Every structure is written in C-alpha cells, then in structure tokens.
Amino acid sequence: MKYKRILLKLSGEALMGQQNHGIDPIRIDDYAKEIKEIQKKGTEIAIVIGGGNIFRGVSGASKGMDRVQADYMGMLATVINGLALQTALENNDVPTRLQTAIKIEAIAEPFIKRKATRHLEKGRVVIFGSGTGNPYFTTDSAAVLRAIEINADVILKGTRVDGIYNEDPEKNKAAVKFDNLSFDDVLKKGLKIMDSTAFTLSQENKLPIIVFDMNTKGNLSRIIQGEQIGTRVDL
User: Fold this and answer.
1) C-alpha span between 145 and 141 (Å, rounded)
2) Structural domain tally of the chain?
3) 203: which of 123, 127, 178, 183 fits an S-S bond (Cβ 3.0–4.6 Å)?
C-alpha cells in the first residue's frame, strides 16, 4: 500500500449524479462502497466535501447577498453533504465520524485535531464539515489545511475528469492530459487545480495532490496501491 493516510476531497457537485441539484442516493452509495474498499485494506481516510450542489457562497454574494452570510450558508451546505455521506458509509458498515469547524454539537463533533487523528488510528473514516469555519476560504483550502493537520500522505481530489489537462477536455476533445506535474509546472502553465490559497499551502508543505476521476469504479483503490491514475502534482 503506497498511502497509509489520505485526505479525499470531493466536490458537492459530484454528489448530484445525474440530477441538477441535491444529492443522488445512488451516487453517494457508490462512493461509500469505493471508500469501504480502501478502508478494509487499512487505509486511514479523512474526507472534505464541498457544498456546491446545495449552495455556493460566491454565487450567492454575486447576486447581492452579504458575502460573509453567503459563505456561512455554504459551510452549512457542506455539513448536510457530510451527514449524507456519513449515513451512506454507515449503511455500508463503515464506522464514521463527522467533525465540523462550526460547533453544531447536536449532529457532529467539533473539530479537534487529536480526536480526529485518534479516530483515524482506530479505523474510522473522518468527515470534516463546514470548511475552515471562516468566510472567504474555499473547501479546497479546508482540505489542504486539514490534510496538513492530520499529517496525510496525499490529497486525492476526486472529480468527474480523469486528471489535469492543458485545456478543458469537456470543451476540447484534443486537450492533452498530464500524468505528472511539479507545482512550478502548474503555475507556469496557468493550470487551475485549486484556488491559489489552497495550492500555495500544499506547495509550501510539500503535500502532493492527485487529481483523478472518482466516478470510475476502482480508481480510488488503484491509487492507494500505487498505480498511475489521474495526474500527480508534486515537487
């Protein structure tokens, strides 16, 4: 096994499946089964999910809402997604804990680094909700921050595209996929992987990122075993 402890970053949109909004129960169950596969092999798994399938703070602010309020609404959307994924995992017999940066003690534990680490050591999946707990920060930033705090080996960014391309492959069929990139390569080529705050934090802490297609069955397990799947960004 190449990676002992991972941080899996999922977008909220990934949970929509074939729907236009909300959570597709079939898609989230598929994800739970993929996660269970690597959990059974002894991988320690932490997860950060976005909230864009329910509410996106930046979008709300662009329509006249107060940015801070809109961002807090987005954070609460990630908690809803976290609860949904926790339920799907527990329905597949995977012990799971949801921790949030904003205290919502009736439904989740507050984020405590040592407690999160202990859960991981005991084989529980830990979902981190409500981003960093602060407005103006994306869930990408939250994913990198939490990955650093728990000493994850890698960030796995699950998307609907099978890696990083020089152009959007959904718009240009001739786009070229990269297998490996350095952090400097990404900056020089102007490639958009994460927001700049998250990317810089990852680079400064020498934390590799793998961008891959989460919707292809078995990809997550193959990455953990060390196969070349998606695009790896490293020093």
Assistant:
1) 6
2) 1
3) 183
